[in-house]
Amino acid sequence: MGSTEIANSDRERVLCLIKEHGWNATSFQTLESHFQYWFDVPEACVAYVDTGSAWVAAGAPLGPTDALAAVARRFVEAGRRQGRRVCFFGTERRFVGLSDFGALVMGSQPSWDPAAWPDTVQETSSLREQLRRARAKGVAVRAVEASVFAHSGALRDEIEAVLSRWQAMHPLPPMRFLVAAEPFGRVGEKRFWVAEWQGRVVGFLAAVPIYQRSGWLLEDLFRDPQAPNGTVELLVDAAMRCAHEEELQYVTLGMAPLSGPVGILLRIACRFGNSLYDFDGLRRFKLKLRPTGWTPIFLSVPQGAGRALAVYDVMEAFADGSIPRFLWRTLWTAPEFFVRLLALLLIPWTLALAVATPTDWFPTQIVRGGWIAFDVSLTLALLWLSGRWRRWLAMVVAGCTTLDAGLTGWQVFAFNLPRVHTIGHALAVTASVLAPTVAAAFLWRVVWSRYRRGARSERAGKSALVTEHSHSNGPPSLQR
Question: What's the pTM?
Answer without folding.
Answer: 0.74
